[in-house]
Amino acid sequence: MKINKTNAARLLDKAGIKYELIPYQVDESDLSAVHVASVLGEDVNRVYKTIVLRGDRNGIFVCVIPGESEVDLKKAARVSGNKSASTVHVKELLGLTGYIRGGCSPVGMKKPYPVFISSGALSFDYVFVSAGVRGLQMKLAPGDLIAVTGAVPADII
Fold this sequence. Notes:
Layout: H1 7-14, E1 20-23, H2 33-40, E2 48-55, E3 59-66, H3 73-79, E4 85-87, H4 90-97, E5 115-118, E6 127-130, E7 136-140, H5 142-149, E8 152-154
Parallel strand pairs: 3-5, 5-8
Antiparallel strand pairs: 1-7, 2-3, 2-4, 6-7
């Protein structure tokens, strides 16, 4: 099966980062990372989801967290230099990031937003994040993901 490279994958190529593209069957009724992990047959703690937030002081920022977790808005606000934070509305996602819900990658967003990754990612040799479209994940080392996104490991869950 031919897998079309996404913008996120091309950016990893350009940065010389080793990764694997993993296609999966999309279920439009369940876009959760938990579902993606079960379809891939992987530990849900290795399948990271990308959450886009808006802080009251510094605007848009991104949190990358394990599939079953919820972002702690107070912790996320604190690490991003905000007093409070809220998730952006799904209707705003494409305009802000260039990605849609269920296919939002922390790599290659329209603008270079600050990125915070759950520090637990560092305990794995590889993690999965969206490749930028529904039905395609990127498998890569967390250190490489941090390098390419400028992510800061933080306590955000």
